[in-house]
Design a protein that fits this description.
Blueprint: H1 9-14, E1 23-29, H2 40-53, E2 59-65, E3 69-75, H3 82-96, E4 108-111, H4 118-131, E5 144-146, H5 168-182
Antiparallel strand pairs: 1-3, 1-4, 2-3, 2-5
Helix pairs in contact: 2-3, 4-5
Length: about 180
């Protein structure tokens, strides 16, 4: 008899669709939520892996590396499925980083619908470290990556030091609620 919640991964995989050209919001977590990804060596591994993973067929738009998870926003190319992109990314980060931790099996993925705003998702992941109180609003987060800063209008509203205005925290709550409902 089961003693706790049982993973329903197989049911989730049944509905997985990899649509080339679609924009995906993906989250991958470390096993047991180990707080290791923002350690200098591991952060460097994540950054170089992002550059490699998204240098050919897939297009990375934004990413946020948190201590125990990574958010990615990207357009899927034609060669790999979403699951293969996630697997390739995880394997490469592990090869390049210290081996004292592992990834959680699978991850979260969401294909953006035509009615959803890619910019809202980018804003959501940009604000993630501030929402989690990892840094004060007056400090730029080193785990944020955006390939094309002109892609999202909200980035033009950053202060010269790369930090968001304090009022964005209130706006972020409405964006976060909208994204949580759609995912």
């Amino acid at each position: 008899m089961p003693t706790g919640p049982q993973r329903q991964t197989a049911r989730l995989l049944l509905g997985r669709v990899s649509a080339p050209g679609a924009v995906y919001f993906v989250t991958m977590c470390t096993s047991k939520r180990a707080q290791v990804l923002t350690l200098a060596h591991n952060l460097s591994s994540v950054r170089s892996t992002l550059a490699d993973t998204f240098s050919h067929d897939n297009s990375l738009h934004a990413a946020c590396v948190m201590p125990d998870h990574v958010h990615l926003l990207f357009t899927l190319g034609k060669r790999l499925t979403v699951g293969q992109v996630m697997g390739k990314f995880k394997a490469s980060v592990r090869r390049r980083s210290d081996k004292l931790w592992t990834w959680q099996r699978n991850g979260f993925e969401h294909r953006l619908r035509e009615t959803e705003s890619e910019a809202d998702y980018a804003f959501y992941i940009f604000m993630n470290p501030y929402r989690a109180h990892l840094v004060p609003i007056t400090t730029a987060w080193s785990g944020w990556l955006c390939e094309d800063p002109l892609r999202y209008r909200f980035l033009a509203g950053l202060k010269p030091d790369g930090t968001p205005p304090p009022e964005w925290l209130n706006y972020d709550k409405s964006i976060a609620a909208k994204i949580d409902r759609s995912s």
